[in-house]
Amino acid sequence: MRVRTDRVVALGTWLWVAALLVVLIVPDLHLDSRAWWPWACVTGIALGVLGLAYVRSGRGADKGA
Fold first, then answer.
1. What's the pLDDT tens digit per position in 12-64?
2. Would 44 be classed as within a structural domain?
3. What is the 3-state secondary structure (H, E, C) of the chain?
4. Residue 38 lies in a domain
5. Is residue 9 part of a domain?
6. Is residue 64 part of a domain?
């Protein structure tokens, strides 16, 4: 089965963006013991952007499959 890896990584990145918006909109999700949740989303977004750049550069493409 052929899968567009760049689309999968982009979808995951957009899901992290959506999660960040939800965490920031709902106060109970980023206060007190959950203060690290927004940073987890930001980290997911940053890694997604790096992964997307890696895949689109051609180094992350599986040319042997």
1. 999 999 999 999 999 999 999 999 999 999 999 999 999 999 998 886 666 65
2. yes
3. CCCCHHHHHHHHHHHHHHHHHHHHHCHHHCCHHHCCHHHHHHHHHHHHHHHHHHHHCCCCCCCCC
4. yes
5. yes
6. no
